[in-house]
Amino acid sequence: MRMVEISGKKDVLRIARAKGKILLKKETIERIKKNEIEKGDVLSASKLSAILATKLTPSLIPLCHPIPITGVEVNFEIGENEIEVSVEVRSLGKTGVEMEALTGVSMALLTIWDMVKKYEKDEKGQYPDTKITYIGVTEKIKREVE
Predict the structure, then answer these.
(1) Please, what is the average pLDDT of the chain?
(2) Residue-wise pLDDT tens digits, 97-116
(3) Which among 47, 86, 110, 137 could disulfide-bond with 74, CB atoms 3.0 to 4.6 Å apart, if both were Cys?
């Protein structure tokens, strides 16, 4: 095992976008919209969690390079029984930011689950309706800067 040597690469603008979804009960979605979740504002907490996770990616994934992240954008699309999280990460550096975007999406979704789990459990304490689905990179851009 080894970390790949990247010192010979040029610094370029790198952008990665990733998405993922969490399926929830309709009642839970309504509680989120009305800010009626006991733990607090789900979307704000999830957004902060995603941003922090992008910055901590090299600490979580052993062979990822620490990179200078120049920007992170987190967005949500709320459906009837799902929330889609999208994360865009930008860097001016020698290696891509896909892992940072994926980590941000994953942590945002996990934060949502943690904050709403009280409302998602059935009578046996299980989560039959709650699922995290499709986490993937939707776009990767590499562009030379002048």
Answers:
(1) 96
(2) 999 999 999 999 999 999 99
(3) 47
How many Å apart are CA 101 and CA 4, to the nearest integer? 20
Q: Which 3 state secondary structure label does DSSP give 93?
A: strand
Domain assignment present for residue 76? The answer is yes
Range of the domain at 90: 12-143
Cα–Cα nearest to 74, from 90, 60, 59, 61? 90
β-partners of residue 139 are: 17
Which of the residues are catalytic? 114
Burial 46-82 (b: 16+ CB within 10 A, else e): bbebbbebbbebbeeeeebbebebeebebeeeeeeee
Q: How far apart are CA 24 and CA 35, in angstroms?
A: 15
Q: Answer whether residue 37 is part of any domain.
A: yes
In whole angstroms, give the CA distance from residue 98 to residue 142: 11
